[in-house]
Design a protein that fits this description.
Its main location: membrane. The protein is α+β, with helices and mostly antiparallel strands. It is built from ten helices and 15 strands. It is rod-shaped and about 180 Å long.
Length: 504
């Protein structure tokens, strides 16, 4: 994957991760804030409701004292008037002479007065007590009992849906009511306030609750946040990619172009990498410039040393070959009178061949320019140095250097020396991208066990240096071609050489 795409994905991924983390944190904070918000509402609601019920009970006790005085003063009309003004005051019950005489003053809503009288008796009250009792609806019941005198005063305060609705509107509580068991509402945010009966037992719970939800303002803010997130991600990704591509990738591209230039033209370039930055890439460019300068300097020194060695090599080869030629001439003249002259001649020929091989090796390692050669002219120039019959079919131009003469010289010399060849043929064919040369030596051939080894460095069957065919292989590789050999029962050893054709 290209670096610019990696950068784009990385920047976008980091931004998305950043916003996801922010959303996660925000969501966690909102959740905690929501929990705290509803708990505060429940606390406030419970406190308000407790205060209201307490005030309601105190007010009911006050009414109880007034109603007792009014009843004993035969002012029941005032009692009825107050009960009509306070619709939730359902009834005032007076029990005399241990229940033999019961008076009920009501506004018409009390369902069964005797049940309340029985409740007070069952509670075993002696004195003033207030509590909650449940019949058709919930009531606050205040009783003033004097067992010694056999009297009881009972005041009923109805707590119904209308009463709860008033509290709900006043204190902005979503749900309020009476339940007999905790968790009956099955709401996440709910509070249950136990209420006691006249005998102190829990008769149920007044509950308040809120729906588990986010406020519309919060939801609207979250939606806007998502839109802003998408917009900012797109903008920041584009800007980040542009800046990265302009700064980092542009400078990296200059480094790449510089290295491509070195690859195509070598270190023969006077251009240096320049950069206006002050960061790691600038340091990298400076390091590359220093490395290139050092490599170029060492390369120039090595080129000079190699050139000097080539000069020395050529001079030594020239002088040695001249001296050996002279010595061989003397050995030829004196061979009739010298029993060792034939051996001297053979050793001189071998030494001359070795010196010539050094020239072939130099051609392999020398970094020379390729040029066009006509194969037929090259083969004819080489073959005339040997006393052997030859036949050349076809002709073509190939790309090589002066080492191409060594290719055919080593092949011909190897065939004569090791294959005992007296005749050779050269067939030149155009095969598209390559020129194929088939060389047949009509000699003794090569054994199947050795045919794959003959081009290896140092391989020899006759004690020679074993470098001739290795030089052929290396020169062919240098020219971008290849060589291999095979046996033929009729044609002896057959060599296949593939040369590259000139372009254009």
């Amino acid at each position: 994957m290209k670096l610019r795409f990696k950068a784009a994905f990385t920047i976008t991924g980091l931004l998305i991760a950043f916003y996801i983390i922010n959303f996660g944190i925000t969501g966690h904070l909102i959740f905690n804030a929501k929990q705290a918000y509803f708990q505060d509402l429940l606390n406030d609601g419970e406190k308000s409701l407790t205060e209201v019920l307490s005030e309601e009970t105190m007010e009911l006790k006050s009414y109880m004292e007034f109603f007792e005085l009014a009843y004993n003063g035969n002012n029941t009309g005032r009692i009825k008037q107050i009960m009509l003004e306070n619709y939730h005051l359902d009834g005032f019950i007076v029990v005399k002479e241990n229940g033999t005489r019961i008076t009920v003053i009501t506004n018409g809503n009390i369902p069964a007065p005797l049940k309340f009288v029985q409740m007070v008796r069952d509670a075993g009250i002696d004195g003033k007590v207030c509590g909650f009792e449940k019949l058709d609806t919930l009531y606050i019941v205040c009783a003033d009992v004097n067992k010694e005198e056999g009297t009881a005063y009972i005041l009923l305060d109805r707590i119904d849906e209308n009463y709860f609705k008033e509290l709900k509107d006043i204190y902005e509580i979503e749900v309020i009511g009476f339940v007999t068991k905790p968790d009956e509402l099955q709401m996440k945010f709910a509070r249950y306030i136990p209420v006691k009966s006249l005998n102190g037992e829990t008769v149920g719970y007044i509950t308040i609750g809120y729906e588990d939800r986010l406020e519309p303002v919060v939801l609207d803010a979250l939606k806007k946040g998502i839109y802003v997130f998408i917009f900012l991600t797109a903008i920041l990704s584009t800007v980040g990619y542009y800046l990265f591509d302009r700064d980092i990738l542009g400078r990296i591209q200059r480094i790449r172009n510089y290295m491509v230039n070195i690859r195509e033209h070598g270190f023969r370039t006077e251009k240096k990498l320049t950069d206006d930055g002050d960061d790691e890439i600038s340091e990298l460019l400076d390091s590359i410039n220093l490395a290139v300068e050092e490599i170029e300097k060492n390369r120039n020194e090595l080129q000079k040393a190699l050139e000097n060695l080539r000069v020395v090599n050529r001079v030594l080869r020239h002088d040695l070959l001249n001296d050996l030629t002279a010595i061989r001439g003397y050995a030829e003249l004196g061979k009739d009178h010298c029993q060792f002259c034939d051996k001297m001649t053979c050793r001189i020929d071998k030494a001359s061949r070795t010196i010539k091989t050094l020239g072939d090796v130099e051609r392999i390692i020398k970094d020379s320019e390729f040029e066009r050669f006509r194969l037929k002219e090259v083969i004819e120039d080489v073959i005339r140095n040997y006393q052997i019959d030859s036949e050349i079919k076809g002709d073509a131009e190939v790309i090589a250097d002066a080492g191409i003469y060594s290719v055919f010289d080593n092949l011909i010399n190897n065939s004569i020396k090791h294959g005992k060849s007296e005749k050779m043929s050269f067939e030149i064919e155009d095969e598209g991208e390559y020129i194929h040369v088939v060389v047949k030596d009509y000699g003794t051939g090569i054994s199947e066990t050795d045919i794959d080894k003959i081009f290896e460095e140092g391989f020899s069957l006759s004690g020679s240096t074993g470098i001739g065919l290795y030089i052929v292989k290396k020169l062919m590789e240098k020219y971008g071609g290849r060589v291999y050999a095979e046996n033929s029962d009729r044609d002896g050893a057959v060599f296949h050489l593939y040369f590259r054709k000139p372009q254009g």
